[in-house]
Automatic annotation (TrEMBL):
Gene3D superfamilies: Bordetella uptake gene, domain 1, Periplasmic binding protein-like II
UniProt cross-references to Pfam families, sorted A to Z: TctC
Taxonomy, superkingdom: Bacteria
Keywords (A to Z) from UniProt: Signal
Entries under InterPro entries matching the protein: BUG (IPR005064), Bug_dom1 (IPR042100)
Signal peptide (UniProt feature, chain positions): 1-21
Classification via SUPFAM superfamilies: Periplasmic binding protein-like II
Record protein name field: Tripartite tricarboxylate transporter substrate binding protein BugD
UniProt keyword annotation of Glycoprotein present: no
Residue stretches in coiled coil: none
The species this protein was found in: Ramlibacter henchirensis
Length: 327
């Protein structure tokens, strides 16, 4: 009898899961958790994606829930502990790769406590300086950096922010230590770059393109493998072509579900994601943010997970060497 129960119980659970998946999403709303405050770049991406997902998911309501704090780990933990039914998802950026090293006592495992659904976009970074900085191009900047070791300060939007991570990698790549100046957000950091209180910052195009176009800052390079298309950025060299081999930083976003979400549900969400990423309105909105919608194999769950594992390997030694943590 016991052996029969052992055989029948998994079959019953599998059948129940398949029935639930067949009806997914039903009329229950889907919540996309954003582990950062409302109004920031990741929040804007999530709201655009929520709108684009509604139609391929049968018109179901898709809402955004902001759960900020602890380097993005509070919101991520909320999803890791949520019911694995496909109705609670996580939209996270490069923080999925930096949290394992950056956040002390993280209450989940990035690589095993989530189902990976696919990548959404890449946001390029730009290296900018105060308008009164003497160098006028990247080649002049490298000489100036070498002549002013110990005197240069580098702004960022806070520990663990995109600008902080890019700045750490840049210092490592050029072998010049700078005085890091953390701010409570990009806004005040940018204000001080424009005002000349700090020398340099490496930040997302979502935050820098307007300042570059308005000539409020000096722009030196982009962190992508190829030059960018927007008029304000197309003349900027890449750091790779400027001599920093393999230097590439983009602030990517990916979509995740709790571990144990049924495979048919994951497939439905991934199918909907692929449709959303081809939505002309979504693409236009992302281009307006300076972001590039993902069209390569990273839209597949396995490739998404493989990419994040490579990013963890890339950022872990950089963060450990800097000795920084997000509390």
């Amino acid at each position: 009898m016991k052996s029969l129960l052992k055989t029948l119980l998994p079959m019953a659970l599998l059948a129940a899961g398949a029935a639930g998946a067949q009806n997914f999403p039903g009329d229950k709303p889907i919540t996309i958790v954003v582990p950062f405050s409302a109004g920031g770049p990741t929040d804007r991406v999530a709201r655009d994606l929520a709108e684009a997902l509604r139609k391929p998911l049968g018109g179901v309501t898709v809402v955004v829930d902001n759960s900020a704090g602890a380097g993005g780990s509070i919101g991520a933990n909320k999803v890791a502990k949520a019911s694995p039914d496909g109705h609670t998802l996580l939209l996270h950026h490069i923080g999925m790769a930096t949290m394992p090293t950056l956040v002390r006592n993280i209450p989940f495992k990035v690589e095993s406590d989530f189902e990976y659904l696919g990548m959404v976009n890449d946001v390029p970074m730009t290296l900018i300086g105060r308008p009164t900085l003497p160098p006028n191009n990247y080649r002049e900047l490298t000489g100036w950096l070498g002549q002013n070791k110990g005197k240069i300060n580098l702004a960022n939007a806070g520990v663990g922010s995109a600008s902080h991570l890019c700045g750490l990698l840049f210092q490592n790549a050029i072998g010049v230590d700078m005085t890091t100046v953390p701010y409570k957000g990009t806004g005040p950091a940018m204000t001080d770059v424009i005002g000349g209180q700090v020398d340099l910052m490496c930040d997302q195009t979502t935050n820098t393109s307007g300042q570059i176009e308005g000539k409020k800052v000096k722009a030196y390079a982009v962190t992508t493998s190829k030059r960018l298309a927007p008029p304000a950025l197309k003349e900027l060299p890449t750091l790779q072509e400027s001599g920093l081999k393999d230097f590439q930083v983009t602030i990517w976003h990916g979509l995740y579900a709790p571990k144990g979400t049924p495979a048919p549900v994951l497939q439905k969400i991934n199918d909907a994601l692929k449709v959303a990423l081809k939505d002309p309105d979504f693409i236009k909105k992302q281009e307006g943010l300076g972001a590039v919608v993902v069209t390569d194999r990273r839209v597949e769950p396995a490739e998404h997970k493989k990419f994040v594992a490579a990013e963890i390997a890339k950022w872990s030694p950089v963060i450990k060497a800097a000795g920084v943590y997000a509390d």
